[in-house]
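Deliverable D4.2, example record:
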Amino acid sequence: MLINCTFDVNASTSTNSSIEAFVNCLSLRPNTSNLITRAIYTTQNASFSSVLQAYVRNLRFNTSSTPKPLAIVTPLEKSHVQATIICARTHALEMRIRSGGHDYEGLSYVSLNPFIILDLFNLRSIDIDLQSDTAWVQTGATVGELYYNIANVSNTRAFPGGVCPTVGVGGHFTGGGYGNMLRKFGLTIDNVIDAEIVDASGTILYRKTMGEDLFWAIGGGGAASFCVVLAWKIRLVQVPEIVTTFNKALALEEGASNLFDQWQHVAPSLDPNLFIRAEASVRLLDTEKSLKKDECKEQSWIQSTIYFYGLPMNSSLEVLLDRVPAMGVLYGKHKSDYIKEPIPKAGLDILWKKMIEVDNTSMQFSPYGGKMNEILETATPFPHRKGNLCKIQYLSYWKENSIEITSRNIEGMKEIHNLMTPYVSKNPREAFLNYRDIDIGTNANKTLAFAIDYFKGNLKRLLKVKAMVDPSNFFRNEQSIPILPIKKHIR
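Output generated by the structure prediction step:
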């Protein structure tokens, strides 16, 4: 992100005055036990940079030119969240909400306007009730911490969340997170039964008091458009004591294209207990075609999450508590697509050739079907249900801090994404909110094209909820639900 700025002494003085007034406002707000001053970091604080960078998960948004917040508030209790919202509104400061930092475009910790960050990483308690097979999970917890806590009390309980254990629960849940149990149990939001939130007035609400419209909206519509989620109440699912996993690599010369063609025709209709993800990447392989019995690993569900993440099978469960990704923090770019019809073989040949040319982009194809076919598009704001064969995630990572390398990798991904246009969903070209992609548009120019890609026909109801619960548009970012008249073309 490159920004050209002019220096304005009066603006600087005004900004300093605003942040001083904001901090003073926080210190005057009532709280139950912890002094909020211990949770405030301004640019004058020696720990400011380390707190800011601790949950930056994309180095593209951690450069000298990246806009920095005026302050970071790291709540130690619920009242600190309430105070931050009230004081930010009072002093007209934009607020970004961060619970893990894995948002692909850095929207939870970057803004072009004067802003503060509300970072929820201290609110991470997990309370599991096996009698009711439910749990309350605060949004600052990670998916890995949730899995670890579940495994410590039961080897036959699980939660259908994502593969990456360092992802924060807050954003992952509200965007419609998914993982290896997608086809068996659906999405995270399909297994959320209550939530504790703070609204724009600073009031704490639960499902019963917030109402079904707002509860529906935060379950797949991106809560950062409507409120701050403090905690989710989730439904645990039953899993066998032993599950089976495998990972098989196959080169094009060994028939990988034919195998992928077969996969896309059958994967969505397989038994829901079976999840076979296909991944296409450019690398050197030395493999055989057939899947051998000894390549199938029998292990517990919790061990399978570690294995699927890419760590050794004998890894300690404590690796799930690590908050920094196993591969480290890199530069990256992501996109998404949905496939409704199998890609013809000629199209596959073109795709593989382009991937070899681009070299640094991989594609993950996650099959649908099963439970995803049983849930209506309108049941949650997440509309990508029946009729999809699979979801695609395009990924590109690199280590070098170079404008040239960054540009080459992003442009290479765009080339592959454009090449896929004839083979993916159309009108709209659907996209996954949790694979945030700023290229599809923003709300800055008062258009809704990006939101239609994310939410399809559910956008109309989301707009109504936004206007009802946050008419001043306090909760906002570049791709939040805006305050706009409902246009005729939204159906």
